[in-house]
Amino acid sequence: MQSLRNTILGHMRIGVSVRESFLVKDIYALNILNRQLCTTTGTSSDQIMARVITLVKRFDRTDATKVTEKADFQKDLSLDSLDRVELVMAIEQEFSVEIPEEKADQLKCCADVTEYIISAADHKIAEDS
Fold first, then answer.
1. Contacts of 20 (CB under 8 A, 6+ apart)
2. Ranges under pLDDT 50 in the chain
3. How far apart are the first and last CA of the chain?
4. Which helix (H) or strand (E) holds 43?
């Protein structure tokens, strides 16, 4: 079917490369790959911290002016347990990591999240080696 389409488009002088159609179809996969690459050792802890803070600021139940590296999710940002679960899920999606429930309970601020993401990335690299 693809070759028929390419033949017709080529005959009409409208070229669509297979590569371009691949990129359009798999933009979601490229976003995931980008997130995974951003959690590897090539990314500094400052860049990861900035992404975490931005993510927490975009979280609809937080006051963006109160978000800092050390702002406590529960005490300073007034997030209840359900809000924290939703935030952890957003972090997992953004950084393509899985955070076990017992570890998620220990994440109290953006600095804790950043440390966990870096350690998870380092652990994954060590496993792959």
1. none
2. 14-16, 18, 39-41
3. 41
4. none
What does the pLDDT read at residue 104?
95
pLDDT at 122: 83
**Quick check: is 128 catalytic?**
no
CA angle centred on 28, ends 62 and 126, rounded to 5°: 80
Of the candidates 126, 125, 63, 51, the residue with the CA atom closest to the CA atom of residue 90: 51
Distance CA 66, CA 78 (A): 10
As a whole number of angstroms, the distance between CA 128 and CA 50 comes to 27
Catalytic residue, candidates 80, 83, 122, 128: 80
Residue type, position 82, single letter: L
Residue with tokens 């966990």: 116
Residue 18 phi, psi (nearest 5): -65, -35
pTM > 0.70: yes or no: no
Cβ partners under 8 Å of residue 34, min gap 6: none
- How many Å apart are CA 85 and CA 79, to the nearest integer? 10
